[in-house]
## 1
Amino acid sequence: MIEWFKALHVISVIAWMAGMLYLPRLFVYHSVAEIGSVQSETFKVMERRLFRAITTPAMIATWVFGLAMVGHGIVDWGSIWPWVKAGFVLALSGVHGLYGRHLRAFAQDRNDKPQKYFRMLNEVPTVLMIVIVIMVIVRPF
């Protein structure tokens, strides 16, 4: 059963990261679209569907399958790497929540952030993902 948890966890992570990397790109383009324009309204639909139908369910599945593996005792909590990984996964979940706030602001035509902010925010999940993958594969500590 543990192999199924691993496979489903990896699939969920891939889907979650796809959303986490694409959503801020949509925010970049949305931030320069005129409020009320067809383009702005289209971005609202795209952002909402991506966040609610793919990114959030994938995050939940990632947590469920990850915790299922932890529950089956395959992690050595005496090492440092799982704690670092867990901290970075919590940070990634926090960024997910931040994306949700930005999504609501765009939906209500209240975004006050420039496109440069979203361009920088787009890099955060990548950095978090790199550390998480290194912790799991290399296990440096």
## 2
Amino acid sequence: MKNFKVLFIFILSVAFISCKENATSKINSSNLEKAKERDATLSLGAPIVEFDKTEYDFGELTEGEIAEGVFKITNKGKVDLIITSAKATCGCTVPEWPKEPIAPGASADLKFTFNSRGRVGKQSKSITLQTNSEKVTELIRIKGTVVKKS
């Protein structure tokens, strides 16, 4: 039994040492360079999103009219701002966001349309942006009143 324990420990030791040597030989130097570049970018901080306004009041519409508007987005950070998606709370509001990165100090427009058909009364809709900013999600609102068509 004692010989079996010694043999088992020896086999485990050999397996551990051989795995350790194989792991270091599998490191890809180009991946190390990419990681260094990523870390250098991260040290600059995340983009900072600033809107010209966070709420757009379209006023009063007659049912069936379409409201259009624009939010200006400025990147106040030191790295590119990337907006991966923009989703509205309902299908009546359709956002159109910049697909290209927004450079530090640069601005871009987020356009939207609101279709008032079948939406009589006070309206409040949100657009949620998914970004690479520190907050990750940014929220803007659209509001107004839709009056019944006579």
